[in-house]
Amino acid sequence: MSNKKPVEGEKRAFLTGNETVAWAALAGGADIMYGYPITPQNQVMHTWSRIIPPYNRKFLQTEDEISAGFANCAGALAGKKSFTATAGPGNALMQEPQSMAEAMRIPAVFIIQQRGGPSSGTVIYSQQELTLTTYGGNGEGWRIVYSVCNHQEIYDYTIKAFNTAWTYRFPTYVMGDGYQAELREALTIYDPEERGIKMVEPQPMVGMPGKPGVDRPPVHLVNIYSLEEELYDVCIKYQMEFDRISGEITESEGKNTENPDVLVIGHGVVFRSIHEAVKEMMKDGLNVGYFRPVTVRPMDVKALRNAVKNAKKVLVAESSLGQLERQIKAYCYGLTTPISGYFLPGMGIVATDIEREVKALLKK
Amino acid sequence: MVQKRPKIPDGWFEDSKPHLFCPGCGYGIIFKAVAQVVDELDIRDRMIYGIDIGCSLLSYNFFNFDTIQTHHGRTTPVIYGVKRAVPEKMCLGIFGDGGGYAIGSQHLVSSALRNEKIFCILANNTVYGMTGGQLAPTTLPDQKTETTPYGKKVEEYGWPMQGPEMIAAIGSKDVYAARGIVSNFRQLKRFVTRGFQNNLDNRGFSFLEVLSCCPTNWRTNAKETWEHLDKVMTKYFKPGEINNPLEQKEGK
Amino acid sequence: MYLRATEEVPITLVDFDLVNPFYTLRPIKDTLENLGLKVIAWGKNTFMGLGEASSLLRSDMLWALHRKGNIVFDVGYGTYGAEIFNLLEDNAEGRLNIFGVVNICKPLTSTVTGIVKYVKEFGKINGIINNSHWGDKTDITIINEGIIIVSEASKILGVPVISTTVEKKLAEKIGPADFMGNPVWPLTLYMGNAYW
Lengths: 364, 252, 196
Hints:
The structure holds three protein chains of three kinds. Chain A is 40% helix and 20% strand. By secondary structure, chain A is of the alpha/beta class. In chain A, α2 (42-51) links the parallel β2 and β3. The radius of gyration of chain A is 21 Å and the shape is globular. By secondary structure, chain B is α/β, with parallel strands linked by helices. Helices cover 35% and strands 15% of the residues of chain B. Chain B has nine helices and seven strands. In chain B, β5, α7 (185-200) and β6 form a beta-alpha-beta unit. In chain B, α1 (27-41) crosses α7 and α4 packs parallel to α6 (163-170). By secondary structure, chain C is of the alpha/beta class. In chain C, α1 (29-34) links the parallel β1 and β2. Chains in contact: A-B, A-C, B-C. Chains A and C meet through β1, α2 and β8 of A and loops of C.
């Protein structure tokens, strides 16, 4: 790999979310991207394929999302920092390889730019892939998912996703949406090492040096077992590992969570509207607060339950029909705070929407 | 004086005209051939029409046929699913080189192998048109696309896909495999007729690739578009019938 | 070289981005039209309900040069660069003033060499517009840096700097021309309202 650094020091940038993903992956040392066209992530591929030549990184457009996902797993198995990007029906197709990544502890990185669903839905925007991204496939959700809300986060967390994946060996996701993908915003791009971020080196799981059977034992990787007990043991072991590391990786933020009359919960780009609305309402003297999961998987359950317990009422706002609310309710089992939802599937939620809904709740 | 306009085919749904396809798109010619043949064979009452996510998507309300918009690359299994359930139907699918030769290639392989009695028409314009001009399996050597910004390298991505040849190689003698070109309408219409006939005779799978033009993604004016189609594309994709199980021989 | 829309000499904006069309232009199409501009783009209600939202050309976009008045084409990025103008009807040589809008906060055009390379890859242009800004974080330093870098690049490319574009409030602080003598065009920003 070329020694030339794609980003030196700190630089002001004004980019779309998709361009930001590509630059972050480049600065974060990604070796290869596999991809297949699907709106609204295409510009990730366009940008990546355009900027990589001086740095000897690689790109392959595969025949579909299933192969892009499996090739992504393979790149990681071979010891390269590998990523792909998809959306909507492509995300649905990619569940098969994502399950394989969970089963075999493959540190592959997936960028999801949510679009309207189900099926082809719209090419534009939604938050309707939360369930799919956090618990998709035929597994138990051994995935780490960052739900980002602005371009600085897209940059920071795309770099972080590689480090997280290669440290903890679970497939890791940066989940955005079509609005963030296409919007242009100011951010600072930087060389992570110059900022003191320790970049984790990838290690191959197959093809290490030496002759198998002579210099080292051969590696035999499987994702299928013969007996129920074997599978059980693997599931318990990986779940325990996932739970153990959760404390190290969960991220969330909250404001006025000590005793709010209404606590608003949301993730991703909707959080921007929540943040603005809560700020305005607090200025007007209303006792409202918010909780925002940054890792939607694993969820920061402790902080979530504390915030919900202390609130008189909870409002979950999302651009889906309750995918986040369903998870919040499950995590808050046993708490008595009433939880209601404001659902605009596939549509943007603005600050005035949140204000209106919170004020209506306060009146009840 | 009132100018006499050519009659639009009965198979065209008039309410959706003027249509949404880009000026200069080859699909218009393909759809004209299809609708004229359907009218001549008088099979409109049996037609089930499937489309992909790609430019063929824009024909969702183009015809006076019952239409199913499927997923990208999945038109083929949807229309053979209909055919298997209700064999009296005449099942037609139209999609592009991405939907047919990339994500949908396995379905064409299986349809040819199992000799599904459906008709698949594929518009070959060497790019992914609708999503902004990415690489396709049919992209020409050194052709610039949004995912091969420095030109498609044959060492990386291979030579342009020879689709009907592949179908003919996989299928039995009962498979109809041909390649038309929008600049030769009479030949194109003849191929479309034979494609439907092969299904009507309950003989086998019909596959027709059509060399089509996309001035939008080629960034070519009218003159350059026709030149590229007639002189350049035909160097890589030969029009003609690769396998014709019907009695008639190819004329001109 | 201002363009002012009048009855006799109207201004038409054409969304001519074939790779990443600005579907966020939809909500402000009406606003722009109420300001006296004609806009040829897919509007919120006329937009194809289905569609992967790309490269949907309409004939009025290709024939835009036949309209009276001034026509402004917004051409996005795209590996074909200036070849996109091949698509326009009656695109006679010399009829088009092609301006490259450069922002030094885009990594590929953040240095003189970067700008020169990018513009050369695009194709022939007639002038550069210095649109260096950092979104809502723009300050005078960035604008000045942009002026210096873009002016240097323009000398190497042999094309003039047409103007420096600056958001209205900051433009008032700079005045009618920047320190290298380029005219300052104050900008009123509408795209903020275009976000859904």
